[in-house]
């Protein structure tokens, strides 16, 4: 995520939870940068006129003025709870971080009584999980297609062989709960599907990849039928 995108996302994050504060450390972990970087970003936003202020104390942090928030949305408590259920079912989807942010914005922008009713309903829904820590997709991967940059990855294949590659992210494919990053692999000089939970390490470069198209025919899946996402 480049700085311009991060500044916008930082304001959206604060707006989603306003008037509650977010600490610099929490924001640094959220955006995978240093605390000092967050402090510089907040200072830049304040100088640009964004109504961010610091709330002191052990539970303090940065807040955005209520005047900078969204008007109430007419979502029902059941609709909000349904979105929360869908979010919990996303597993290691690369879109999960964005979905979490969207849900927080939605609940905050609801009318007060509806938002509380949604929280009360959500508290009655539970998920039975195995005692295994759920893997979270690094934000560098979840941002890979929306903000194209060449990535350097360490990848472990099905046999456990580890290789280092430079890839140009192009899209995603989901199959039976597993997500794949579709990318042009410079090591193999061709299109490859990288199962996200087998990407062992990732670093973003400053290089913008050349434009490439990606169609269902390019992906060349020999089993199943590809269904495009529609809005």
CA-to-CA gap between the ends?
24 Å
Topology order in helix (H) and strand (E) letters: HHHEEHHHHEEEEEH
Tell me the Rg in angstroms.
20 Å
Which CATH class of the largest domain is shown? Mainly Beta
The overall number of domains is: 3
- What does the largest sheet look like? 5 strands, antiparallel
* CATH topology grouping of the largest domain: SH3 type barrels
Characterize the structure shown.
By secondary structure, this protein is of the alpha+beta class. It folds into 3 domains: 3-68, Orthogonal Bundle (Arc Repressor Mutant, subunit A), CATH 1.10.10; 70-136, no CATH class; 139-219, SH3 type barrels (Roll), CATH 2.30.30. The protein has 8 helices and 7 strands. The protein has helices spanning 3-17, 24-31, 35-47, 77-88, 96-109, 112-122, 139-142, 216-219; strands at residues 52-55, 61-64, 151-156, 162-175, 178-185, 190-195, 199-204. A 5-stranded antiparallel β-sheet has the order 6-5-4-3-7, with no helix packed on it. It has a two-stranded antiparallel sheet with strand order 1-2. The protein is globular and about 50 Å long. It starts with a helix and ends in a 12-residue tail after the last helix.
Give a nutshell description of this structure.
It contains 8 helices and 7 strands. It has 231 residues and is of the alpha+beta class. The chain folds into 3 domains: 3-68, Winged helix-like DNA-binding domain superfamily/Winged helix DNA-binding domain (Arc Repressor Mutant, subunit A); 70-136, no CATH class; 139-219, SH3 type barrels (Roll), CATH 2.30.30.
